[in-house]
Design brief:
Elements: E1 3-9, H1 13-24, E2 29-32, E3 46-48, E4 63-67, E5 69-74, E6 77-83, E7 90-93, H2 95-108, E8 112-114, E9 119-125, E10 128-133, E11 138-146, H3 154-157, E12 166-176, E13 185-189, E14 196-202, E15 206-213, H4 223-233, E16 244-250, E17 258-259, E18 262-264, H5 280-298, H6 306-332, H7 334-342, H8 347-355, H9 361-377
Parallel strand pairs: 1-2, 1-11, 2-8, 5-13, 11-18
Antiparallel strand pairs: 3-7, 4-7, 5-6, 9-10, 10-11, 12-15, 12-16, 13-14, 14-15, 17-18
Bound molecules: flavin-adenine dinucleotide.
Flavin-adenine dinucleotide binds next to helix 1, strand 3, strand 12, strand 16 and helix 5.
């Protein structure tokens, strides 16, 4: 059996990003994916153009729409419009296109893809990891990257990630045509969805419509009721909508994302934003950072992978800690949240800056605290 430098489990956004960067640095990489072919993914495909920073090639070829305007509504009225005028706009991609684009880049850089490899066992024997598939095939590697998404069992097995995992409930569907959605415009609707929001993101010839709830994930979402109101408002008929439901693991506290020779990335690492469900940016960021530290570790330049947990905490977790607080308050009191958080004169600009990645929740929270302190001093 040949020994790989790194075996990556899962060929989604985070796994393919890690695979590309490690293969591009000359490492012997195998990517283990349980599916045979790329499948339609349950994802809105909205992401900040800032993700371009983590790639040496242009992502433009797979961008369906560049969003310049975001419309927010409360129960389909009380509209607020945010212009995304910054340097980093918001992109909408078809998820299967993003994943297969990154996968091809990884393969061209030398990564070996093994499909229909459903990982059921991961063990370590004297510094070597052995990964076993359901059909009995085995792979050996010096390090493992866990990139198998929101249902990953491995964080618990290896005592990594947050102690208590938290999941958002989601539903999404792709509908042919553009309905009444304007060009270069995305839509967020808050009042119709308990503890969450609905979105409509335009693609080339389709619209991705979805619903996410973030607090009470015990009850299923009343999808039909929401779609009955939302779809006509977006210019679509309510008939024949067959979507996908799923659980999305979201950020739930700072935690260890690595041990000796093992790293969690993307949803498996619980990185997804608990307020807006932004999971692509952290998936790509974590893939980039994981590849960097694994390369140093394999080269003997660092003797552990702890720098990965530290950098993800600094560059993502600190903002998500505020995102979680904002989510808990906003979705508990959404009407007040919409009034104070979305309808304030400066809010559209701030929301645009969050979506485009120009500002973090931490930056916003610090501004608010400063404003409160400043106004108190003048009372
Ligand atoms: C409805 C919905 C809408 C969303 N919309 C957005 C959005 O608009 N913008 C945004 O930024 N984020 C969005 N997200 C979040 C985003 O989709 C995720 O954060 C992102 O997919 C994480 O990528 P990943 O590579 O970590 O995991 P995944 O994309 O889930 O990839 C995991 C991969 O691992 C494979 N795998 C699983 N188990 C095994 C196994 N045992 N063996 C081998 N392979 C395995 C899977 O087949 C899959 O290919 C949305 C999520 C949902 C559910």
């Amino acid at each position: 059996m040949t020994l790989n430098d790194v075996a990556i489990i899962g060929g989604g956004a985070s796994g393919t990003t890690t695979a590309f960067h490690l293969a591009n640095r000359g490492k012997k990489i195998c990517l283990l994916e349980k599916d045979k072919d790329s499948t339609l993914r349950n994802c809105g495909g909205g992401m900040s153009a800032a993700v371009q920073n983590w790639f040496p090639f242009e992502l433009n070829p797979i961008v369906d729409e560049v969003i310049k305007k975001v419309e927010f509504t409360w129960c389909l009225s009380d509209k607020v419009v945010a212009e995304l005028s910054g340097a980093s706009p918001f992109w909408i991609v078809k998820r299967e296109n993003l994943d297969s684009f990154l996968l091809n880049k990884a393969i061209n850089a030398g990564c070996i893809l093994i499909t229909s490899f459903n990982v059921i066992k991961i063990e370590k024997h004297s510094k070597i990891w052995k990964v076993t598939a359901l059909d009995g095939r085995q792979i050996e590697a010096k390090a493992i990257v866990i990139a198998d998404g929101s249902n990953s069992p491995w964080p618990k097995t290896f005592n990594l990630g947050p102690k208590r995992q938290h999941h958002a409930s989601t539903f999404s569907v792709r509908i042919q045509g553009r309905g009444s959605l304007k060009k270069e415009t995305a839509r967020f609707e808050f009042g119709l969805v308990n503890n969450g929001f609905a979105w409509a993101f335009p693609l080339n010839d389709e619209v991705n419509i979805g619903i996410g709830t973030f607090l009470n994930n015990k009850d299923s979402i009343s999808t039909n009721k929401i779609l009955e109101s939302l779809l006509p408002d977006l210019g679509f008929k309510t008939s024949d909508v067959i979507g996908q439901s799923g659980k999305l693991r979201v950020w739930n506290g700072h935690s260890n994302l690595n041990k000796d020779g093992i790293i969690l990335v993307g949803d498996a690492a619980s990185l997804c934003d608990p307020f807006l469900a932004e999971g692509l940016r952290p998936a790509l960021m974590s893939g980039f950072e994981a590849a960097k530290i694994l390369d140093y570790w394999l080269e003997g330049k660092v003797d552990n992978l702890n720098g990965y947990t530290e950098i993800m905490r600094r560059n993502w977790g600190n903002s998500m800690a505020w995102g979680k607080r904002i989510s808990q308050v906003f979705y508990r009191f959404p009407k007040v949240g919409y009034k104070l958080g979305v309808k304030r004169p400066t809010a559209p600009k701030r929301i645009a800056q969050i979506l485009s990645g120009e500002m973090s929740y931490e930056d916003i929270a610090k501004r608010v605290i400063n404003r409160l302190l400043f106004s108190n001093l003048h009372l």
